[in-house]
Amino acid sequence: MHHRARVFSGAALTAALTLGAGGATQAQEAAKKPLSMTTELTGVWTGGNSQSSTFGLGLTLGYTLPKTVFKVEAGGVRSSATKTTRYAVGPDTSNYTIGETKVTEKTAEAYYARGRGDYTFAEGLYAFAGADWLRNTFAGIDSRTLIALGGGNAWVNTDELSFKTDVAVTYTFQQDVVSNPFLKSSFPGVRLQYDLEWQIVSSTQFSSVLVGDYAFSKETGSAAGADIRADFTNAFTVAITSKLALKPSLQLVWRNAPALTEIDLVPAAGQPATGTVVVPLKKTDSFFKLALVVKI
Fold first, then answer.
1. Phi, psi (degrees; rounded to nearest 5) at 170
2. Alpha carbon 211 to chain centroid distance?
3. How many Å apart are CA 111 and CA 129, to the nearest integer?
4. 3-state secondary structure 125-136
5. Distance, CA of 137 to CA of 282 (rounded, Å)
């Protein structure tokens, strides 16, 4: 098993089909069309001397009322690579045939689903409730469900700039691929978040989202400490035409107490395994995308 879920597709073309308005549409658009849907399709394929494929699918549904906004998102990404080993079979260097063996394995796989409802009770102030589900076996997470209840404030809300912050209490149910004896499988926590959208010029928009989770998951006698996580995503959307836009984005996911993985124990490099040991995965994962957005 790979020890880190890392998907780099910067040199590849990503297709995103956007139907209707996004969940963060302006109030005037929301009033005209309360129901919105966005679908995103990601595909990367290489062939020839090396073979690999990446496929991703995302769906966002939103429904806007005068004081209430509902939003549901779901999607996933899966990458695989094929290793080809070539060899020659024959009695000498002038008389042989070429053979090859191929081994295909997954290099990344992650799925998510989340929903949230916001209710505005005063100008700029809102309360919300939501739930997240995540499966990322390459990051050591077999299943993680988080329930959040909190509130926030929209500090700025204009056509050019939007900035809001949230705070919520959470409760998490988590099952790791390799169990950590020092961490509980269910625990309370706190979530902090900010959302920023900036229309730099008429054709270029910048967006930034930072989500931080502090989970009270430490048990008595544990050296692991509290589970702190951060999810930081930044993106530029550059309009090509009224229907097309180019959207590069970078997502960084960090966890101070990463999940565990099981690896082979060998007496020396290149020798057969004599057993296995459990070690932590790396703390940071990176996801880079270059998306072509089509608005219909």
1. -130, 165
2. 12
3. 21
4. EEEEEEEEEEEE
5. 13
CA angle in degrees (0–180, nearest 5) for 214-115-283: 35
Contact between residue 44 and residue 81 where contact means Cβ atoms under 8 Å apart? no
For 63-84, give the secondary structure using H, E and C: EECCCEEEEEEEEEEEEEEEEE
What is the per-residue pLDDT for 3?
A: 40
SS3 30: helix
DSSP-based helix, strand, coil % in the chain, nearest 5: 5, 70, 25
- Residue type (1 letter), 51: Q
pLDDT in tens, 238-287: 888 877 777 888 889 998 888 888 888 888 887 888 888 888 888 898 87
Which stretches of 48-185 are assigned E, i.e. beta strand? 51-64, 68-92, 95-122, 125-136, 141-157, 161-176
Q: Which two tokens stand for residue 142?
A: 């077999």
How far is 226 from 230, CA to CA, in rounded Å? 13
Delineate the domains of the chain, giving CATH numbers in brackets.
7-295 (2.40.160.40)
H-run or E-run covering 35: strand 35-46
* Cα pseudo-dihedral 80, 82, 83, 89, rounded to 10: 160
List of residues 6+ apart from 85 with CB closer than 8 A: 100, 101, 102, 103
pLDDT band at 48 (very low <50, low <70, confident <90, very high): low
C-alpha–C-alpha distance, residues 47 and 43, integer Å: 14
Q: What is d(CA 155, CA 164) in angstroms, rounded to the nearest whole number?
A: 5
At 93-134, the pLDDT tens digits run 888 888 888 888 877 888 999 999 999 999 889 999 999 999
Q: Give the rounded distance of the alpha carbon of 19 from its chain centre.
A: 21
Q: Quick one: tokens of 189?
A: 């926590």
The predicted model scores a pTM of 0.74
